[in-house]
Design a protein that fits this description.
It contains two helices and no strands. With 63 residues, it is an all-alpha fold.
């Protein structure tokens, strides 16, 4: 997060410049990409956990 996005709020009384809006949008896009990557990693981790549990259940059921 840049200094601009830390101090500027869209509810501010002054209109943002095009450059300010561009920087804010880039910050939001970066945060969205990071959040998406984190969620995807968590999803993969959970799916792998379930796959491992299913495999363990199958092995124990075939004995």
């Amino acid at each position: 997060m840049t200094e601009l996005s830390k101090k500027y709020r869209l509810t501010s009384m002054e209109e943002p410049t095009d450059e300010m809006l561009q920087e804010l949008m880039e910050d939001v896009a970066k945060a969205a990409r990071e959040s998406s990557a984190k969620a995807e990693a968590e999803k993969k981790r959970r799916l792998q956990t379930v796959a491992n549990e299913i495999e363990a259940w199958r092995r124990s059921s075939s004995i």
